[in-house]
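Entry for the shared binder. Reason: the reviewer on the internal report wants the predicted structure included alongside the sequence.
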Amino acid sequence: MKSTLKKLDSQVMVITGATSGVGLLTARRAAQRGAKLVLAARSAEVLHRLAEELRESGAEVITVAADVGNLDEVKALAQAAIERFGGFDTWVNNAGVTVYGRHSEVPVEDQRKLFDTNYWGTVHGSLVAAAHLRERGGAIINIGSEASDVPLPLQSAYAASKHAVKGFTDSLRLELEQERAPISVTLIKPAALDTPFAAHAKNYLEVEPDLPPPVYDPELAAEAILYAAEHPRRDMFVGAASKAMSSMAYHMPGVYDRVMRRFLGRAQRTNQPAGPLENNALYNATNDLVDRQGRPHVVKACAYSASTRHPVATGAMLIGASLGIAAALTMRRGRLR
């Protein structure tokens, strides 16, 4: 059964990881467009501050303090949405965290905790959402990463979790399609974004971590999420770099490894000495409402990301590019004869 999604101003939207980065931006933009919101994060106090901010602009908001790694707390989140609004239409599994360090330096317990949030949080949210949406219809939107498709040195646990999120999301989609359930399942795969992602990471490097360029405005990811809430999409890359890395790793894995072996190690390190190890969001909630880190060089617009919202135009662009390449190769062969 084909999923028919409502307009945002008629939707109830659940967002996890709603007090920072992409989740925070998505909540603010969804509120501006009239969606009713059910927001989750680990800190009740920060959620309360966010709710007050959004209610001042007229939004209908409830908040639930929840750790997505705990299935019972995720079930309670869904129940709160049902009790307050009669249900929900879109569920966004956004909560996520990373750990920087070589594979031999990151304790296994930290890797397990990362998976509790990134992978199991997505599984818990997806299962709870699917159970509700099978009859109602709606969208499940899972936040992957460019690391869903490529290896990432110094963040091996994060890359593994995002590979797992992709595998689970794609399999869930197939099963729901087999059931003819009216549910759209979308995987969003952003490139590096100007969020507090690196600042919130647990860090085992000797220096402060960084994100490899290009770094994109997280507004692009928020817009992709809101678009997927209204338009069924299988997956969406955010930032041309994400698509380029995915394609390169798939079609030329050896070349990708050689390039990234030289580039990605340095690109994820700053020259600043590392701060205290305990300053991280792996185990503890953050206490700020920060959607952007404020980096000096951020890509504000991306033609590729915009084109993914228009598949016909994107297809035409790809066909045109392919014909152009073919013509160029034909001309080159003619000169060589």
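Summary line for the report: DSSP finds ten helices and eleven strands in the chain.
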